[in-house]
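Entry 12.
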Amino acid sequence: MRRKSFGRDAGLSTRMFLTMFLLGALYVGFFVVMISVFQVGIVPMVLIIGGLAFLQYYTSDKIALAASGAKVVGPDEAPQLHAMVDRLCAMADLPKPRVAVIPTDVPNAFATGRSPKHAAVAVTEGLWRRLEPREVEGVLAHELSHIANRDVAVMTIASFFSMLAAFLMRMGMFAGMFGGDRNREGGAPAFLIMLVVSLVTYVISYVLILMISRYREYAADRGAALITGAPENLMSALQKIASGMTRIPQRDLRQVEGMNAFFIIPTSVKSSIGELFMTHPPLEKRLARLSEIAQEMGRPLAA
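Predicted 3D structure (tokens):
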């Protein structure tokens, strides 16, 4: 199986392309407005945020592992887990990532790394205990699909100008608090223009980035189905993870909620603000899509 086949779906690819196009158009408009308002200062700001994005890009795996408390383990420490990853990597024609275990009872998993050669996959102790081996393989295949699709790199690039807009928004707030002159034509103060434009750009880009994030989850689900040839295993795993999350104490969930964007299922599986502001698609939609893939593959699902 060639790597380019992971998660390939015409409708999904079209929506993802359109979302990226809208995001790019938004950023172009943002820069046109900002450059027309400010004659200097944009380049240094871009360099500062670019440096932060560069640092995030090249240290994303280390940051994610450290933030989650994950411990990289060798084949002697987790032989079954390593055997699964070895087998799936061979099936997917991927280099083997580092394997880590997170010491928490919250059932979940994530992958990180800027490329297949610089990646890591982590599972929690809670996931390993609650899922059957075939279900763990479905989860691992989903995470390997993220690695194959270079999703960390995609999301880092997509969020770059959102970071810049947030930075400029803070600059505008500080300028407003400590004083700011009106422009030469007697119009609105420059800091107010910067604040409003940056705020609008940040909000819109945030929504578009979340849309991209949801599309990447659909693609990784599809990739897992293609790697394992058994989408029903991932379906069963997702249901068990979501169900198991409701039995975890809120204190434990809060300790790892900062990793929600990375996890296969966020620790808060329900959202009161709607799908628009969710990092992951609703579980019901993911299961429905996997069911369609199973039918395409001729895989019967249990009633």
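Annotation: The chain has a mean pLDDT of 81. The beta strands are 71-72, 98-102, 109-115, 118-124.
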